[in-house]
Amino acid sequence: MREQEDRMEERAEDLEEGQEERICDCAEELEQLERDKAQLNQQLLRLKADFDNFRRRTQMQMEENVKDANKALLQDLLPILDNFERALQSDRDAEAQDPFFQGIEMVYNGLMAALADHGLQPILAKGEPFDTCLHEAVAMEGSEGDDGLIVLEQIQTGYLFNEKVLRHTKVLVGQNKEEDECQK
User: Fold this and answer.
1) Cα 118 from Cα 63, distance rounded (Å)
2) In what order do the strands lie in the sheet with 120-123?
3) What pLDDT is recorded for position 12?
4) How many CB atoms lie within 10 A of CB 16?
5) Which of 98, 75, 77 is CA-nearest to residue 88?
6) Which class is 121-184 in CATH?
7) Pairwise CA distance, residues 73 & 21, whole Å
8) What are the extents of the domains in the chain?
9) Distance CA 73, CA 84 (A)
């Protein structure tokens, strides 16, 4: 019987050692799983951030493509707008009461309002100080000094598209008459 008890004790000790080994193995495995989980979480967060950046970049690129397409279309429409302006400027007073002339003016105003809704704005120049960023001087009256130049006449309308110059306004520039009198 003593032998049996000894064997049972040995067996119990073996079982305890086995359990301790298994517990140690489980603890190591658990630690490894925790590290793997943390690593996967980091990868997931990086992937999510990369996807958000990709989505934002794609959206911005699509918006730029739309703006570029609109810009090209508007550049093609500028000669038509010039012809409209020329037609409206010809003998305005005599035709002001003509319903056909009034209809043309309404169509032009409607077209300009629609284009303004999409970011097109005319650059108004007459009487303004000459600005090389907005104006292109095609002729000059008076002295060639750069200080005090104003736009005397607008030859061709320029346009801004989304606050960037689409076409410079072609202008006739000259000295400010008030400054000319002061210099004499």
Assistant:
1) 13
2) 120-123, 158-161, 164-167
3) 67
4) 10
5) 98
6) mainly beta
7) 77
8) 121-184
9) 17
